[in-house]
Amino acid sequence: MSKKVFIGNVAIGGGERIKIQSMSTSKISDIDKVVEECLLLKEEGLDIMRFSVLDELDARSFRIVKEKTKIPLVADIHFDYRLAIKAIEGGADKIRINPGNIGGEKNIKAVADALKSASIPVRVGANTGSIEKEFLSKYGKSEVSLGESALKNVSILEKHGVKDIVISVKASDVDLAVKAYEYVASKTDYPLHIGITEAGTEYNGVIKNAIGIGSLLLKGIGDTIRVSLSADTVREVIAGRSILTALNLYDGVKIIACPTCGRCEWECMAFAKKVEDYTAKIKKPLKIAVMGCVVNGPGEAKDADVGIAGAKDGCVIFRKGEIIKKVSKEDIEIEFFKEIDRCLQ
Fold this sequence. Notes:
The chain is of the alpha/beta class. The chain contains 13 helices and 15 strands.
């Protein structure tokens, strides 16, 4: 089991529920805009939010945004160690750095001292674009070079007394990312921030993240996730929640939806989308089935809390495989949504 680390009042590792992260594309100093974004994502299931820090105004904005949203905030720092220190002073709950690109030993020590003084953690983020040259020349572009590069930077912080560390070893290649996380997990008990970086636009990006994140979590590897997408940040959070729900790691709605065939005599696919939209924000464990016909419907989905299947002149609604009522086509939506609501009472 990984070590437990607190980001603000949110714990990752140590057997805690897997936490969902995202990263804003806006400057944190644009207070009103990012507060609105954070609150929207929080409603969808966000646990932790990250922001790039580009200047001193950004660094000073963390405490204000945190007070308005009650969400733990992470400062993402590159190249300028002084911004890391200012973000810590400005109220960031965690910083993300690559010690190799913020200067020499003196700069690293200054950041380490600030981290210890504020009692906040740091994420050491390595990716295929930041592999240390010594490991790249020795092992090539591989899980070993990526993993060892991250671990070397972890050791630098450990040398200066930093103990609350989170590690990430992201790659855009799913196989490489999975192998790198497996490698690091075998070498350390620090919590791992997992994901597939630069995964692409929403459709393909969700597929890549689901494969990578899902395969790692099934092996017990990973403590917090970020689904990186070239899409609105709300889509990242929804996708992350869906991945965790599918793995029984998050209390949400699972929808079993029939692909339909020639026996289907109603708009099953369109109705499944309506059910998905209706239940999108429910954060309770609930299994719902939307089936094309009664030939196999109730039987195939007999473990569903509530389900619906098409019949010749309407639909039947069932619970745990047992039909409880028949409804006309005109009453399908109102009657089925009533049954969903009853399941939540």
